[in-house]
Amino acid sequence: MRKAAVLYKDIHAGTLVETDEGEYTFQYDTTYIENYPTQFLSFTMPVTDKIYDSSQLFPFFEGLIPEGWLLEVASKNWKIKANDRMGLLLACCQNCIGAVSVLPIIDQDEDN
Question: Smallest Cα–Cα separation from 14: which of 1, 29, 3, 2?
Fold first, then answer.
């Protein structure tokens, strides 16, 4: 399982999870919901306490991943396969252009 903290303008907005089965979930942080109820990440993911789930990486996060020659450079330098979308998101999107950043959450209980 891989997890990421999703920040909106340096404020923790929620958590993105890729399960061991390759499913994805995103949940807004309760504090973010209370303080920023209209500051959604995407029109397709309005602020709610509902857990979003999908069999593929959500299109919003998919759009943050580099494309073309930049994807090739990232994939080669970090030795990440181009189809490992969560891996690319975690490696390349910690300091995105725009308001959203995706930071890996390292689970201390898992073996590395």
Answer: 29
The most distant pair of C-alpha atoms in the chain lies apart, rounded to whole Å, by: 41
Q: Which residue has the higher pLDDT, 80 or 37?
A: 37
* For range 32-55, the mean pLDDT: 96
**How far is it, in rounded angstroms, from Cα 27 to Cα 44?**
13
Q: Hey, CA dihedral for 88, 94, 95, 99, is it positive or negative?
A: positive
Given a contact cutoff of 8 angstroms between Cβ atoms, the answer to whether 6 and 94 are in contact is no
Distance CA 102, CA 11 (A): 11
The mean pLDDT value for 20-25 works out to: 95
75 φ, ψ to 5°? -60, -45
In the block, tokens 């504090």 appear at 31
